[in-house]
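Quick one - first record:
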Amino acid sequence: MPTDQTPPHGSQPEGRPQYGEYAPHGSTPPPAQQQPVADATGSAAESVGGVGAFVGGSYPQVVASYTKYEDAQRAVDKLSDDGFPVENVSIVGHDLRTVENVAGRVTNGSAAVRGIGSGAWFGLLAGLLFGFFIPNDNFFIVLIVALILGAVWGAIFGFVGHAATRGQRDFASVKTMEAGRYELLVRGEFAARATQMLAEGVYK
């Protein structure tokens, strides 16, 4: 008979902490997850094992928060340059959202022009492949013919493909994923050291 494997209320699962279990800065981690404090060389990280602030070690803590990913990346780079064991650091993004930047309007003509470019590259590749199986005297002729045919077919497919949308999407865009804020999490036994190094630097 299967048994209920749900842990008792209030207990923490072993291994990797679940999302949302991050301890606020300055809080005390549960006794079951506490580890010996590392010395100046960071030897405790090697004894604990694992990669990143979510694997092994004591409870991860938030030591800094940034509104731009570049700022969080710069902080980790500086910590690394100063000799901090960055394998105990994780960058966690919160409030994820998609951002679509519109590059411009697309018409049947512009779609055909874009198709010429992509078709020409495909024709060039096909011409190079076929060129190895023909006499050297005709190599450049095959290459030019394949390039022209690829450009023509690319223009046709670009024109027809955009015309088939019937104006439902007459623009080109680039979609990216961004976060509202980025938190710098450090494994518990290294949190105090990271906080001190960030406070002394100009990159906090």
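second record:
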Amino acid sequence: MTDVRLIDVSLRDGNQSIWGAVGVKTSTIERVAPHINKVGYYAAEAATSTMFATAVRYHQEDPWDRLDALRIAAPDTTLGFLTTGKRFITFSRTPPELFKLAFELLRRHGVTRMWVIDPMHDMEAAMSTARLAKAAGFEEVIGGLCYTISPVHTDAYFTEKIAQFDKCDAIDSIYIKDPAGLLTPDRLHSLVPSLRSGLKHKRIDELHTHCNTGLAPLTLLAGADLGLRYLHCALPPLAEGASHASALQLVNNLKARGHHVNVDVDAMQRASDALLREARLRNLPEGRPLLYDEAYYRHTLPGGVLSTTARQLKEMGKGHLMPAVVEEAQQVRADLGWPIVVTPFAQYIVTQAALNVMAGERYQRISDEVVDMLLGDWGPMPGLVDPELLNRVHDLPRARQRIAQPEPDPPSIADLRRRLGSELTDEDFLMRAVMPTEQMDAMVAKRNSLRRARAHGASLGLRELALALSDPQRPLSIQISQGDTTLTLTGKHTST
């Protein structure tokens, strides 16, 4: 039997899959992370670059402050970061110097574990990223195989790709990332031995899979049976649905199967209860088990992309188009040569599908990202690109201009410093280099206001007070001041 270690993904992937990447705030971290710290997780997924963007864009919060809050609240828990290709926040490639700075800042703010995948399975690019992570001081770098299904993504394809990691000193081990929840127990039993046959020096013992088909709880058990020691899971209400298997039920299932897992289930339950209170106070969705849907194996869109796309279409007043967009995404992926449906390509595919549906004509308008992808920005596609689409792309002004005038080298750090301001901290400099100015200005203004309020001892707002009073792990303490008179009330929560 396997000695299983759990990796929590609630605050990152759970948030992205169930709450559209915008539900978790810094205050959420402060309430939930102390409980997560006591569970005994092997690691917790702290962020991808999406967290940085949504913190600024939707909450006007400093993402580095959020990371600091997580590190302070969970000092005994290893924090991890997922990178998908050489990009940070933007959906295009980030200049190498900025990418290097991002890694250095992540380490400075307490992140020590990194998962590295390249969505096109450009393993040389992934190994380059892994070396960059090691140079920045990451203690553990995990190279990923990004699982999908298509006519070209066979066991032999994956085995040949993953074998390229075997002699890379910057990669400590290998994991299977199944962002769309497509793996089945039977498929895992054929895939894992095949992958291991191509490895002599590296171990493959970690599994990340989603519940989109409802099979993830069974697939994780199959992984444990195969000796995969590190299993990713989430806490309700950020489990199930398009997210990961419920950690609470997974523990029960592992033990019933005869595997060993040593965690504090009470702390796990307290963390889950805190998340549930927040969901209900803020009217956020709760993940529910999904019925098996055979059609899901056709479009393969990850949970986070589905929830985010649905939210964005609703905001545009076009929520009713979501089924048609999902259907169209299948054809777009085939036409593009079967790229894997993961960030950023999942977004490229679904955006192009939305353009097709809204126009009522396929490829009447082609997104710049699809043009750049088909011009080779991310390397060759796994399969053949539709010739008619490729010809149409090459006839576009953007393509002709790029071919005639290759893009100049990206600006250096020194150039960007001169342009953005030499007085900026490294953190603000990086964010201003990749985020819209107006969004950063709003974040900085709110951050400065909060810091001034804290310096003057400002009290909590009504929402924050309600959340604080609803948490049985916090002592009750209310202070009311008028003039020179201060009244302080303290007490304990009692059950009813």
